[in-house]
Predict the structure.
Amino acid sequence: MSEFDKIIGYKDIKAELIRLCDVVKNSEKYKTLGVKPIGGLLLDGNPGVGKTLMANCFATESGRKTFVCRKNKPNGEFVKEIKNVFAEAAENAPSIVLLDDLDKFANEDTYHRNAEEYVTVQSCIDEIKGRDVFVLATTNGTDNFPQSLLRSGRFDTIIYVNAPHGNDAVAIVKYFLSQKKTVAEVNTESIAKLLDGNSCAELETVINTAGQYAGYANKDMIDDDDIIRACLRIIYKAPESSTPHNPAILERTAYHEAGHAVVSEILEEGSVNIVSVRKNTGTIGGFTAYQNSDEYWISKTHMEHRVISVLAGKAATEIVFGETDTGANNDLHRAFDIVERFSDHYCSYGFDCWTDRETSLSRQEKKESRITADMENYYATAKKILIENRAFLDRLAKRLQKKDTLISSEIKEIKEQTTRDLKKTMQ
């Protein structure tokens, strides 16, 4: 069994780590080809995505003795510690120096990058050249590093480790669930969608918290409801409350959130991960979380669909209650931000609508006029979709008033049942 089997998902990153590890592990094979020893490897990404696990797997699989350096002493003493770790690794070559959380070595910013700790690391790397010491590092960001530290020859390879997405998220959720006692019918795909884009550490915390909920309820096994409760608490910051919504507020919130979900599902089936009327991070309303398709950032159509869906909360409230929706402020800001990108980032309105700090007043007015007109059209589209799918809207809103949170599989079921009922009515 390979050490790399401990890494769940991340197929492409794992393949690159295996290749690089082979170069370190079997250097003689590469010397016959004239290949020089490779410089260091840096794993960069947000906290909790598994960088240290990957580094440890690499080090263990290489078969080399590993010397770990983490910030564990005051600045002056820590500089000596860095030098000692490199010196010890050189004496025990072939070896690996693992600089874990390299960004924590110094408290610097983008204007003061040449911290003594980073300069020391840089000089130590240079001093061990030709000593058969491989440098491996993890970091939560490289913005505050001196660029000279990151150049080839010191770190030949930088691998960016993102939060698990798509199949990676599914694989990791399945792995964590396999370590727990769960009912057979846990909807792994839907659960993975709820957790898509969150760190491995957050995924593990959610599954473990679900076990806490199950145990507290004296259940024999963890089920979907336990996992959803944990997702709401950990990921969406929407814990259960003993204080129920005022019925009038609940109804308005349900229609607002149902508006988002209905329009999004009509435009792109399966695009809503979760819709809830729970208070999120202390706000009065609920929330709707969307699933970004792989094409989202390369397709204006997908972005337009998101704008229409974001505006649909306001549209639903005003269609049903005939009053201005006073809870749509965040939605409006979000929609305007996306549409403004069409002008300034993509020039989709033409070059004469692009603006910067020195743009003329006439061009600025033209841009704003175009954005306003498009927002009106997107809002009209949202209203049209909701009116045409009023039965779906009503049914989803009523379900939210009874069960405060619905996941993608439940939304799909409501949509399909509404379609079947309408067909029967028309026969």
